[in-house]
C-alpha cells in the first residue's frame, strides 16, 4: 500500500489491540509499532457511576496491565475528539505510564463553547494547554519507528481528527461500521454537511486501509465489531456508501439527529474531557463536584 499522497508509509502494519467498554460502547486501542516496543493508546475510558457520583478505573487498569505485561513503552495518548458519551482515562494512564497527551488544535473552540455552558471561571484555560500536543491538519508524529499523521475531520465536533498509523486509521466518530452509518452532528459546533466532507476525506484513503471505530452498538442484534476498511465503507455504509450525495446525507442526518436523546453521560463527559480527562478542581471544602446546567444544553 505505497501511497505518496500521504506522509506515512502505508505498508507498515501496526499491531492493534482493542478494549471494548460495554457500558458506553466505546472501543479503546493500544497500537504498537511493529519495529519497536513503542505504543499509543487511543480513546481510553474512565469509568463513572453517574447516579452514585463514583469514578473508578477498571477500564484504564486493563489497558495499563496490557501495556506492562507486554513490556511496551507508552509514547502517546491520543483523543480523537472531546467525547460526549464517556470520560477519558488518559490522565490516569499517563500518570502511571508516561506518554504525551494529544488532541486536535480546535479543542480551543470546544473549550470556549463548553466553558460558557458550564460557566467556568478564568482558571479554566481555553487554550488547549491541558494537553501536551495540539495537532493541526496533516501533522505527523512518531510512535517509535511508526509514523502517524492527524487528519482534520470536523462535523461531529469541531475538534475531531482521524489518526492514520501505517495501514490503520482510527476514525473516532466520523464513521461507524458500514451497518451503523455515521455519528450525530447536532452537538454545539457540529455540522452534517461538514461531517459529510470529512467522511469523504476518510473514504479517499486507499481501499485496503484498515479502519477502527470508536463506537459500535451492534445494530440489528449483531455482535460488536470495530474493524472494517475503506472499500467496505465506500460500498456499504448505510449513510454515505454507494455514492450517497451530500444533500441526501444532510437531510437524513438532520432529521435523525432531531429525534436522538442526549447521551446519558454528556454532562460529566464534557466537563471532564474539555479538561483533557481531569476532574474539575476541588472547591474550598476539598471536595470535587460536577455541575448540571439546568436547561443549559
Ligand atoms: Fe463522539
Automatic annotation (TrEMBL):
**Keyword entries, A-Z:** Hydrolase, Metal-binding
Record's keyword annotation contains Disulfide bond: no
The name under which this protein is listed is Glyoxylase-like metal-dependent hydrolase (Beta-lactamase superfamily II)
Organism of origin is Roseibium hamelinense
Record lineage: Bacteria, Pseudomonadati, Pseudomonadota, Alphaproteobacteria, Hyphomicrobiales
User: Which Pfam families does the UniProt record give?
Assistant: Lactamase_B
What the entry lists under SUPFAM superfamilies is as follows:
Metallo-hydrolase/oxidoreductase
Kindly state a single biological-process term from the GO annotations of this entry.
Answer: hydrogen sulfide metabolic process
InterPro entries per UniProt: Metallo-B-lactamas, Mito_Persulfide_Diox, POD-like_MBL-fold, RibonucZ/Hydroxyglut_hydro
SMART domains named in the record:
Lactamase_B (SM00849)
GO molecular function ontology, one term from the record: hydrolase activity
State if Oxidoreductase is listed as a keyword.
Answer: no
Residues of the Metallo-beta-lactamase domain? 25-215
Task: Point out the signal peptide segment.
Answer: none
